[in-house]
# Entry
Amino acid sequence: MTRSYEIVVIGGGPAGLAAAIAARDAGCTSILVIERDRELGGILNQCIHNGFGLITFDEELTGPEYAARFEELALQGGIDVMLDAMVIDVSTDKLVTAVSLDEGMVFIQAQAIVLAMGCRERPRGALNIPGFRPAGIYSAGTAQRLVNIEGFMPGREVVILGSGDIGLIMARRMTLEGAHVACVAELMPYSGGLKRNIVQCLDDFGIPLLLSHTVVRIEGRKRVESVTIAEVDGKGSPIPGTETVYPCDTLLLSVGLIPENELSLAAGVELSPVTRGPVVNERLETTVDGIFAAGNVLHVHDLVDYVSQEAAVAGRNAAAYVGGGRGEDGVSMDIVVSDGIRYTVPQVVDPARMPDELTVRFRVDGVYESRFVSVYLDDERIYHRKRLIMAPGEMEQVILRQKDLLARPGVASISFKLEEA
Amino acid sequence: MYDVVIIGAGVSGAACARELSKRKLSICVLERDEDVCCGTSKANSAIVHAGFDAATGSLMARLNVRGSTLMGPLCADLGVDLHNIGSLVVCTDESSMPALEELRDRGAANGVEGLEIVSGERLHALEPNLADSVVAALWAPSASIVNPFQLNWALAENALENGVAFHFDTEVVGVVREDGAWSVHTPGETFRTRCVINAAGVYADVIHNMVSPDTMDIVPRRGQYFVLDTSAGRHVRHTVFQLPTKLGKGVLVTPTTAGNLLVGPTAEDIDDREGTDTTAEGIRELLAKAALSVKGIPFRETITSFSGLRAHRAEHDFLIGEVAGAPGFIDCAAIESPGLSAAPAIGEMVADIVDGILKPALRDDFIATRAGIPNVEWIGAKDWEALIAEDPAYGRVVCRCRKVTEAQIVSAIHHPLGARSLDGVKRRTEACMGRCQAGFCTPKIMEILDRELADLSFDGITKAGPGSELIVGRDKELDGGDRS
# Structure
C-alpha cells in the first residue's frame, strides 16, 4: 500500500524539523517527517554542551534544549512523524521507501521532498593513517554518543586528531569526565573549528592545539597504546625528525564531516564536488524538480541556528511548490567563486524568482585578515565589504538583493571573490 | 582422546574440519583468537584465482585449479557470496607479450579452461577503465571473487553442526608425542589426539618445529590494501591483475562481493608475525602501482586500509603432508596465495591423508548445507519485505551504510558459531564495513551484543577479543551504578 503526503521530510534533526514547521506555517497540511533514530532532534541530542540558539532564541541552550523547542513546535499539529524508520530509497518521481520495526516496509508518494539527512564523520580510513587498527580509535561523534547518551567512557588517556568543532567539544567533555587529553593535533595551519570552541574547550583547560601536525603512526595490537604525532610541511607531508610519541589508550578523530547524500544520488540529484551536497538554486531546490535540501546534508554548517534558518527557507519553498505558487521561471545564473572562496549555497540564482533578499552562505579556503568580500554582476561590483577575519571553520554570508539583479537585466554571471582592497 | 585436533580456525583449518566431519571421527579445532577468520583468512584479496599463476606440477597449481572447481558448488551449499566475474592480467608493454602468452600456456597446462588473450576494442568493452597503456590482457572467465569471512565462518559452522568442537582463545603452546598419541598443550587444557593438523598460518613453522628436527621457516609477507566505498565498486568489472615485471609483481584492482573496490596488495617480507600494520611507504606504493593498470581510481572514496600476512615459504609452494618421524602430525602449511582459492581442495587433501592414517568410515548423516544470513542490501524491496513479514527486526536498520538490520545482527550472534565481538558481527554481516566505518552503528551493535549475550556486560564488549575492550568505564556520575 502506498501512502501519500504533500511533503515528506527525510530526517528529524534540526533541519528537518525547521523545514516541516515552516512548511506547515506556510499552509501545507500534509507533512511527514521520517527520522531514523528513536527520538526527534538528530545529533543535537548528544550535544549536551551549551552555545546553541544565540541567534534564534537570543539565549544559550544545550543541544537537547534547542531540539526540544523545535520538537514542541513540530508536534503542535499538522505534522506526522515516523520514528525509528530508515528511508532506503527515494526515486526521481518522489516515491519514498522506508523500513521500520513497527511498520515494516512503507511506500510514500510525495509531491515534494526536503532532504535533511545530515552528515557523517570522515573515518580514519579516509586519512590513510599508517599503523595498526586496534580498539580505541573513535570518531569524535561516536565518542560523544558513548559518553553523553550511553554513559560510558571510551578511554582515559586521549589524543585528538583534527580540530573540528566536535573534536574540540570532546576535548573538554573527556577532560570533565576525568580523562586526560594530551593534545589536539591539526593538519592545517589553522583550526577547522569555531574560535569560541578553541578558547572554551582547549585554552581554558590547558589542552595544547598543535597546528600543522598530524598522526603518523598508531601503535597497539588490541587497544591503542600510543600514537606518534609529527609536524607537517606546507604540503601537509610529515617532517622527519619532528615525531613525538604520545602514550594513550584512545585516539579521537574530528577530521571533517561529509554530507550524507546516498539517497540524494538515488533520486538523481546532482551533487557539488566541493560541498558534497546537492547543487541548489535560490529556493534550495536541487536539480530534481520538487526535491529540496537543507542543513548539513546540503553543506556542513558551523552553527545550528543557520541550519534552522536555511531549512525554514527550504520548507517554505517546498510548500509553495506543492501549492503551485512558485511563480514563473526566469533565467538562472551560476554563482562563480574564486580567489579564496570555496563555494556558495545556493550555487544557482534565478533573479526573477529570488526573494527580495537572498542569503548566500559561503566558506573561505584559508585564514584571511582584513579582506574584502566582493560580489560582481559581470564586471560590475555590487557588494564590497571588509571583514576583519575569515577562517574556513566559520561560515560567512552575503545578502543578495533582488533589485540589484533586476536592475541589470542583461547580466550573464554572478561572481564571489575575496579582494585585498 | 580426539581422533583429530586441528590447530587454527582460519579458512584452511575450517576447510579441513568440514571435510573431516564427513567421517566418523571425533574432532576439535583450537584457535588462539576469539573467533574464526582472525588471521590471514580475513585480510587478503578475496579472489578465487583461475589457476594460471602457479608453476605447473606444483601443489599450488593442482590445489588452486581443483579448489576453484569445488568453490562454486561449495559456496552454494553453504550460503557464501561468490561472484564469477572473471579476471584480467593486463600487459602494458608490447615487449612483455611473450610473458602474457607464457601465462596463458601455463594456465592451459595447469588445466585452467577458457583462457584467452584479448586486446583492442574487445578488451576496452570488457573493461573500459583500463589504463591507456594497456595493450592486451589474459582473460580468465573462470576466476571469481568470494566473501572470505563468510567462507571461513560457513565452513567452520558447518563442521560444528556436524559435530566438530571449537575452542577459542586457546593458544597451542606445545605439541608432544606421548604414549603413542599426541598431547596438544594450551595454557589451560591439554588435548590428547591421534592426529594433529597444523593449520596455524604464519605460526605453522613454530608448531611444526615443536615436533620435527627438520625445521620449517615461514616468513610473514605483508600485503597492504585500500578499500574504496561502494560508490567506486564498479570502477572495474573484473579482477584486474598486472603482469609481473622486472619491477615486481604489481597490484590488483577488483570489486568485492560486498560491492567495494579493493586495491592491493604490497608484498613485504617482515619479521613480525603480528605486523598487520599499514605504512606510509606501502600506501604510497599502492597509489603509484594501481594507476599502471587502471585509470581514474577514485581514491578519494577510500574508506579504510588494512594489512594481511601471507604465510610465505622460500620454496613458494604449499606444504601439506604427514611429517616424517611424527606419525599422525600433518602439516597444512605455507598456505599463501592462492590459499583461499585452494581451501576446499586443501580440505580434501588433508582428509585423504587422515583417511590413510585412521581409516575412518564415512557418516551417513552428514549435513552438507547451511543457510547464511540474508543480506537485505542487495535483495530488492520485495524480498526484503518478505523477510520483514517473517521477522519485524528486518525492518530496523542498524548499520545505515551497508543496510544491515537488527535481525541480521541478532542472527550473527545466535548462529551456531556466533559472533561475540564487534568484529565478529562485522565479518558476519558487513555492518561497520561501510563508508562511516562503524561511526554510527558501534553503540547500537554494542547494545545488541549486551542484550543478546547474557554472559557479556556492556563494558566487557570488545572489538576483537580480550584486550580490545571498547570502553574503559562509566561516566563519573554513573561510576559504580548500574546501567539503566
Remarks:
- Chain B has a mean pLDDT of 96.
- The first strand of chain B starts at residue 2 and ends at 7.
- The longest helix of chain B spans residues 59-78.
